[in-house]
Amino acid sequence: MIRWMDKSMLEIKDLKARIGGTEILTGLSLSVKPGEVHAIMGPNGSGKSTLALVIAGHEDYVVTGGSVRYMGQDLLELDPEERARIGVFLGFQYPVEIAGVNNAYLLKAALNAKRRTLGQPEVDAFEFLKLAREKMTLLDMDQALLNRGVNEGFSGGEKKRNEILQMAVLEPRLAILDETDSGLDIDALKAVAKGINSLRDPERAIVLVTHYQRLLDYVEPDFVHVLSGGRIVRSGDKSLAMQLEEKGYDWVREAANA
Amino acid sequence: MSTTTDDIATDIETLVNRRYKHGFITDIASDSLPPGLDESVIRAISQKKKEPEFMLEWRLKAYRHWLTMTEPEWAHVHYPKINYQGISYFSAPKSDEDRPKSLDEVDPKLLETYDKLGIPLHERARLAGVAVDAVFDSVSVATTFKEKLSEAGVIFCSFSDAVKNHPELVRKYLGTVVPYRDNFFATLNSAVFSDGSFVYVPKGVRCPMELSTYFRINAANTGQFERTLIIADEGSHVSYLEGCTAPMRDENQLHAAVVELVALEGAQIKYSTVQNWYPGDENGKGGIYNFVTKRGDCRGDNSKISWTQVETGSAITWKYPSCILRGENSVGEFYSVAVANNMQQADTGTKMIHIGRNTRSTIVSKGISAGRAQNAYRGLVRVMPQAANARNHTQCDSLLIGKTCGAHTFPYMEVRNPTARVEHEATTSKISADQLFYCRQRGISEEDAVNMIVNGFCKEVFRELPMEFAVEAQNLLNVSLEGAVG
Questions:
Q1: CA B79, CA B343: separation in Å to the nearest integer?
Q2: Does the beta-carbon distance from B456 to A170 stay under 8 Å?
């Protein structure tokens, strides 16, 4: 049905990016197909979050080389909001608080922005609330969070769940979840993992950016990549994550330098 | 007012297509006085308006006092010296030659704004001061309203009509809230005021509709020295809307209006303003100076006066709607959103003077600064020795957009009664790049994100506005801040 289905959804080739004067990504290549779950692991400072932000279009990062294609088009040409509307979602490591802006209001605006782009009719407040409540039940989220300011006074766990709620409502084709597991207690981690698993879909790709292996106990990746010095130094299946857990990142660093 | 403007548009249509049956023609040009100000000018104004002796006396007292005053300089605003002898103090409607001949001669930015606000075409011409044959005439619209009001016994008319038809009320209340000696601009207004609105709500009457200057006969061309007097008699209620969200153009740069509110025992007055005078171009050129004195007197026990304002226009705004809480248990409220963009300067706030026992006041001020604008909140809470158990809560928030604007807060508190409780909270926040990126990553454009954040910031004030006004105010804010980011 859709031609790119057989090919990569996300095709990153030799990507180089810098912030200020510092080169962070030094030639990163990655290929992600629909339906796949990829885990990107690596030590602090290896460029994991940078990769996520460059895909999302953060303007502080300057792409100095390489290419990023998404569903056959040049992603780097698009504004962040355009990328979002065609299905690129970033779950933030540190979701920002926006005081005074109703959580439900922002999410409804986001959903309708996407629907407009796809030529679908906008949802009204009733339809939206019904949808949001369904998804919240799935994520064991307190429904009161809908009527608070965006992330305003949310606990760490609530913020991360809110990111997954947004993902569940917006139904992106490509979801990049940046350290979604960090700062979560075990119950919250399980709830978030349950949410992510419920969103696995043959037409959706998920990229998990994580420092630790523990999320991968709950969300099983198809591929694991290890990032070091701004590029992928090793790729494998889930067993690679286990190895990392045992041997630590020094092991890949040495392997990369060897 | 979106629905009402539509209604009015239809009404204009009807009016335009109909022969002018009222046959109302005035020789406008001969009604103007040459620039300059002295006693003979005051006498001439009073004479032209066929005022009774007491009005002339009052104007003259004000004028003589004004001569002894100096222009205040304490406000956080800057403007070139005003030449008071260069102003015409009885400028009846401008003759057609002085006006733009058509919309083509009007600042295209202004027209763009009308477009965004969805102002009907006929309205645009009127608002921009274009000389048009079919001048908007609210007579027919107003007539229906007038009938309904007079059934309830409410007097709502121009100030001049009130002086003619209800001199006893004018005489009894004029200058009792803002005395003619009050301040430089109020005193000048007292001497030379041209016209304005007058409202009297009799005892126990709940005014059957929101009163809006929009529907007042002769609302246009009340000139730069407008005067409003609203009296709510015992146990009555009234809600009054002033202004219009459409940017108003005026040839007169200086606007020094006075508004006086009197609430007798158990009465409630709600006064809402949306002020959107022309702010000038990006460099502030041609904008209006809006130096207004607004004050309400909670004269009776258990009375309440509530001010809500959305200030987006003018090059310079200098205004402090205030409440004198004289009656026991009386309540004063001030809800304000003041936006300053580009080169605009705003120095606004309120004064709450607690005199009676158990008086309460609430101040919620939201200042938004963008561009190179300066926005100052200046507020005074004064608790007099006899005001036992007075309460005040002040919340004063500033939102900054960009790096070249400024927000300033000048709260003054004078508490002379130990049982008083006065609270002041202040915050300053910025729309951060992280917030904007977050919204954009969710598919929301930067402009929509700014609007969302700004409207969220203001919602405490917006919900005090009458419903249709609130929606308009929200749109207005969006338009005012367009391009403020990036």
A1: 11
A2: no
Q: Across the strands, what pairs with A38?
A: A207, A223
Query: Whole-angstrom Cα distance, residue B136 to residue B15?
Result: 8
Sign of the torsion angle spanned by Cα atoms A22, A26, A31, A35:
negative
How far, in Å, CA of B420 to CA of B151, rounded?
43
Specify the pairing of strand B316-319 against strand B268-275. Answer: unpaired
Q: What is the Cα gyration radius of chain A?
A: 18
Residue B73 in tokens: 């300089």
Could you give the 3-state DSSP secondary structure of residue A26? strand
| pLDDT score recorded for residue B470 | 76
Residue B293: give the domain boundaries.
Answer: 139-480
In contact, B190 and B58? CB cutoff 8 Å: yes
Quickly list H helices, B82-138.
108-117, 121-127
pLDDT > 80? residue B460 = yes
Q: Report whether A30 contacts A232 (CB < 8 A).
A: yes
Q: Does B427 touch chain A (CB under 8 A)?
A: no
CA B397/CA B363 separation, integer angstroms: 11
Q: Which residues of chain B are within 8 Å of residue A109 when distances are taken between CB atoms?
A: 442, 444, 448, 452
Task: Tell me if chain A has a CB within 8 Å of the CB of B445.
Answer: yes
- Do B227 and B265 contact (CB within 8 A), yes or no? no
CB atoms within 10 A of CB B426: 13
Q: Is there a domain that residue B179 lies in?
A: yes
Partner residues linked to B10 by β-bridges: none
- Quick one: which of B120, B413, B65, B423 has its CA closest to B246? B120
Contact flag A84-B435 (C-beta cutoff 8 Å): no
Chain B hits for A81, Cβ within 8 Å: 440-441, 443-446
Q: Residue B116's pLDDT is what?
A: 64
More confident residue, B229 or B103: B229
- For residue B452, which residues of chain A lie inside 8 Å, CB to CB? 98, 101, 105-106, 109
Asked if B438's CB is within 8 angstroms of A96's CB, the reply is yes
Residue B191 lies in a domain: yes
Q: Which of A202, A215, A200 minimizes the C-alpha distance to A41?
A: A215
Q: Per residue in A126-138, pLDDT tens? A: 999 999 999 998 8
Contacts of residue A173, Cβ cutoff 8 Å, sequence gap at least 6: A9, A34, A71, A86, A87, A88, A203, A204, A205
Instruction: DSSP letter for A214, please.
Output: G
Is A58 in the B-facing interface, judged by CB distances under 8 Å? yes
Rounded to the nearest 10 degrees, what angle do helices B2-16 and B467-480 cross at?
Answer: 90
Residues of chain B neighbouring A166 (CB-CB closer than 8 A): 442
Tell me what pLDDT residue A254 has. 72
CB contact under 8 A, B445 and A90: no
Q: Distance between CA atoms of B96 and B314, rounded to whole angstroms?
A: 24
Residue B105 lies in a domain: no
Dihedral pair phi/psi, residue B342, rounded to 5°: 50, -120
| Chain A interface includes B463 (CB < 8 A) | no
Q: Give me the residue spans of the domains in chain A.
A: 3-95+173-257
How many domains would you assign to chain B? 1
The predicted-structure confidence for A111-154, as pLDDT tens digits, reads as follows 999 999 999 999 998 999 999 999 998 888 888 888 899 999 99
Segment holding B298, helix H or strand E: strand B289-298
> Model-level pTM?
0.78
Per CB-CB distance under 8 Å, the chain A contacts of B435 are 96, 98
The listed CATH number (2.60.40.1880, 3.40.50.740, 3.30.420.360, 3.40.50.300) that belongs to domain A3-95+173-257: 3.40.50.300
Pair of tokens at residue B125:
């011409």
ipTM of the modeled complex:
0.95
Distance from C-alpha of A225 to C-alpha of A241, rounded to nearest angstrom: 9
DSSP letter, residue B329: T
d(CA A123, CA A63): 36
User: According to DSSP H, which parts of B180-272 are helical?
Assistant: 184-192
